[in-house]
Structure formats: C-alpha cells, structure tokens
C-alpha cells in the first residue's frame, strides 16, 4: 500500500506490519534498535520514497492484484485507511487489499529474479509472513493471501491462515516492546551487527573526559570480543596461507582448473590517489574533496 505523507508521519505512533519482524528479531532489513529509535523520534527514518524500486513496487501493486484476480477468480478492493487493533491502538495495519465476499486480505509484493528461491514451493520470506500475521492480528481477519510478481517473469500467490497461538505470542511481544521500551524511551539492548549506524546516530558526540562505571557483564563482553579478535587474526593468516598455496600452484599460469573449480591469478592495474601528495601539492582541492568527518572510534585496553 502506498502511504500518504500524513500516514508516513503517523507511523511512528504505532507498530506496523513492516516493524513486526524487526521487533521479533527476524528481519533482514531492520533491527529492534532501529524501530525503537524511529518510534521514539530520536532518529529520522531514511526517505526512500524516491527510489525506483519503491516507486515501481507501488505502481505494480495494482498489476499484482489484477493478476491475483485473474488467476483465482476472486475480487479485491483497495483499503485506504489505517486499521488499528481494538484492544491495542498502537498496533496498526496498512492493508493492500481486502478480498470481497471472503474474510481475507491480499498483500501484494514484487521481487527481482535474485529472490526467486525465496518463493520456491511453499516458501515465503519470513518478513512477509510476519507482516501478514500482524495484519490478521490487528484486523481479526481469518486469512491472508500474498501474491508476488518476480522479475516481471513469474507470478505466484500463496495463503497464510490464522493461527491463534502464533498471533497471541506475536501480539504479546509487540505489546511488551511498546510498553517496556517505546513508551518509557528505554533503549532495548538487543544489539545486532547492523546497528552501528543507528548507534552513531543516537550518540554521535562523546562528552569529553566523561567516564561511566560499567559492570562485570561488560568485562565478559570485552573478554569475548578480545578472544574473537584473536581468533580472527589467526583465521586471516590461515586464509592468506591457503591463497598463497594456490598462487604457488599456478606459478605463471593465469588460470587453473580442477574437476570442481576454476582458479585465476590475473594481472590487473589499479590506481589509488596518493593522499599525502595530494594534500601537499593541492591543499585547497584536498580540503574541498576530502573534508574532515566526525566519527567515534571504539577501542579497549586492560587497565594499568
């Protein structure tokens, strides 16, 4: 469903279908911390409305719904208003279509050809399953159909039926997230590898000479990190050693083949800017094209 500017602005006041998977820790595209930061108004969400893939998806929504009607014989109608849970008004749903004469909704998707495997057989990307289950939870509707146009080459549609246990578990987790983190603005400590940008957006500037006392759990965290860093350095050396073994086997040959692999060691030319020379000989241009950027660097060391 293509949202109006007002609906986009209002989204920070409720948990929507695209937030649900992130809150459950099952999204590949959004993290719990990012949802929290946006809902609490501490981070402005990136405006992607002008991206071609988003515009195309919005334009093709009608096409997907028409394909669905042609293949199933069902009729659907557009839903323009945001629907809210009768008990929890902070759970909302922006539906694509409702199926006429049936207690069901239709969610329309598009995907490029690289996503084909995600839709093979009975497969549906987990984020979309959770989105549909969230909509069923909010609306009380019994069934969701999900239809997808893949790379303008293939069309599929599938069903997601209402499961009360799954819905109750999801709603309980969404309600807990809203009440425990969003309302009191308490940062969730479910931190992922994707949260670097959000953490910097939340805490861009360190107060000079400021110190905070951290507990034993932080000792364990640093010790684990230190051990992983050491393992990483060893693994890096082992990887380079294996690469060098391949180079030694190829010698002056550009390509080597086995019954399973093709290995190449080709000559190529690369060009890199000598930043020190550039800074020395063209200081004005250096300042223009290499402006200083603020960042926070994380380091750790054993206290002396």
H/E series: HHHHEEEEEHEEHHHEEHH
Structural class: alpha+beta
Give the N-terminus to C-terminus distance in angstroms.
58 Å
Largest sheet entry: 5 strands, mixed
- Indicate how many domains the architecture comprises: 2
Q: Can you count the helices?
A: 10
How many distinct beta strands? 9
The largest beta-sheet arranges its strands as: 1-4-5-6-7
Strand residues, percent? 5-15%
- The level of helicity is 40-55%
Low-pLDDT windows of residues:
none
Q: Based on CA inertia axes, which overall geometry fits?
A: globular
What does this structure look like?
The protein is α+β, with helices and mostly antiparallel strands and 304 residues long. It has two domains: 193 residues, Lambda Exonuclease, Chain A; 74 residues, no CATH class. Helix content is 43%, strand content 13%. The chain is built from ten helices and nine strands. The strands form three sheets. Strands 1-4-5-6-7 form a five-stranded mixed sheet, sandwiched between helices. The longest helix has 35 residues. It starts with a helix and ends in a 15-residue tail after the last helix.
Question: What would the keywords be for this entry?
Answer:
globular; two-stranded antiparallel sheet; 304 residues; 5-stranded mixed β-sheet; Lambda Exonuclease, Chain A
Summary of the model, kept short:
Helix content is 43%, strand content 13%. It is an alpha+beta fold and 304 residues long. The strands form 3 sheets. A 5-stranded mixed beta sheet has the order 1-4-5-6-7, with helices on both faces. A two-stranded antiparallel sheet has the order 2-3.
């Amino acid at each position: 469903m293509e949202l109006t500017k007002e609906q986009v602005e209002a989204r920070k006041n409720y948990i929507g279908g695209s937030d649900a998977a992130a809150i459950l820790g099952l999204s590949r595209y959004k993290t719990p911390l990012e949802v929290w930061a946006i809902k609490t108004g501490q981070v402005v969400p990136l405006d992607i409305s002008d991206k071609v893939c988003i515009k195309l998806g919005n334009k093709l929504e009608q096409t997907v719904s028409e394909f669905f009607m042609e293949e199933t014989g069902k009729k659907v109608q557009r839903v323009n208003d945001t629907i809210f849970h009768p008990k929890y008004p902070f759970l909302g749903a922006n539906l694509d279509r409702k199926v006429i004469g049936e207690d069901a909704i239709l969610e329309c998707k598009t995907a490029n050809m690289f996503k084909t495997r995600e839709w093979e057989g009975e497969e549906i990307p987990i984020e979309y399953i959770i989105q549909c289950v969230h909509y069923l939870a909010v609306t009380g509707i019994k069934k969701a159909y999900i239809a997808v146009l893949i790379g303008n080459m293939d069309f599929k549609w599938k069903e997601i039926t209402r499961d009360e246990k799954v819905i109750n578990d999801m709603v309980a987790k969404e309600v807990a997230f809203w009440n425990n983190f969003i309302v009191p603005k308490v940062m969730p400590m479910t931190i992922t590898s994707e949260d670097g940008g959000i953490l910097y957006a939340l805490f861009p500037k360190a107060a000079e000479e400021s110190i905070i006392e951290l507990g034993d759990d932080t000792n364990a965290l640093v010790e684990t990190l230190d051990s992983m860093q050491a393992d990483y350095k060893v693994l890096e050396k082992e990887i380079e050693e294996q690469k060098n073994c391949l180079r030694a086997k190829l010698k002056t040959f550009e390509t080597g083949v086995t019954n399973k692999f093709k290995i190449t060691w080709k000559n190529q030319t690369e060009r890199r800017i000598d930043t020190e020379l550039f800074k020395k000989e063209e200081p004005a241009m250096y300042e223009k094209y290499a402006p200083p950027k603020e960042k926070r660097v994380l380091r750790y060391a054993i206290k002396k």
